[in-house]
Amino acid sequence: MAIKKFMYLNRKASYGTVYAIESLEVVLIAAAFEQDVSLAFVDDGVYQIVEGQNTDGIGMKNFSKTYHALGDYDINKLYVSAESLEERGLTEADLMPLVYEDEDDDWAEKPSIKVVSNADLTKIMSEQDVCLSF
Amino acid sequence: MKISIQINEGPYQHQASDTAYQFAKAAIDKGHEIFRVFFYHDGVNNASRFTLPPQDDRNVVNQWAELGIKNADGEPELVVCIAAALRRGMLDESEASKNGIDGNNIHPAFRISGLGQLIEAGIQSDRLVVFGD
User: Fold this and answer.
1) Terminal CA-CA length for chain A
2) What is the ipTM of this complex?
3) What is the CATH T-level fold of the domain B2-131, as seen in this structure?
4) How far is B119 from chain A (nearest CA, A)?
5) Topology of domain A5-133, per CATH?
6) Taking CA atoms, which of A69, A77, A90, B56 is between 20 and 30 Å from A27?
7) Judging by DSSP bridges, how do beta strands A99-102 and A108-111 pair with one another?
8) Of the candidates A6, A32, A134, which has its C-beta nearest B122's C-beta?
């Protein structure tokens, strides 16, 4: 089967609507298809990977820990919009330290998150074969 | 061109399904192939055979059914995500009996399947077009 470049574009916060968790479900299934997968977090989507989420008060499942598993599924290209972070008063230090083990570099642990400008993200997006927007 | 469609919103609440339908119809009229339509999030509600709009309004579910999008084996290629469907009370006969529930509501022109069908549609098609918010 041909390998295509799939990007999952996350635009919404985690708990107000269902898009974030159901996007993550697609990403985890997609991992089994051995495609070239990347994720982008823009607009309120950047809140999905903020460190220290707590859902005790809203009676919903806290699924933020699942993002830590992405590295084990060889999903290690997580692009975050610098402008979207800045607009929300966030920095990279507010995000979960998501990492993967690089098999080409003696399994060294490396960060999966790359903060990029919207201009760079536009370029990365234009290189994709399939872009699923959530 | 081989085209697949993803629909992320329910009928009537949102225009996504209507627009996707018009797009699919126009594409077919132009000689393109709709490989698969995948219903996700609240989009799964587009498959309810219990949908009864007022007589002077369009029937979004029947419109999709009438397009008759099928594969070479004659199976419907209007595919409803199973995980999204079950958590929203959308069941076919097999899921209803498996879960001991006394009814089912998936229209026979649709079928329930897994998210892998969405990924496969992305791989197999020239374009995957997403409709929703």
Assistant:
1) 25
2) 0.84
3) Hypothetical Protein Ychn; Chain: A, (3.40.1260)
4) 6
5) Hypothetical Protein Ychn; Chain: A, (3.40.1260)
6) A90
7) antiparallel
8) A6
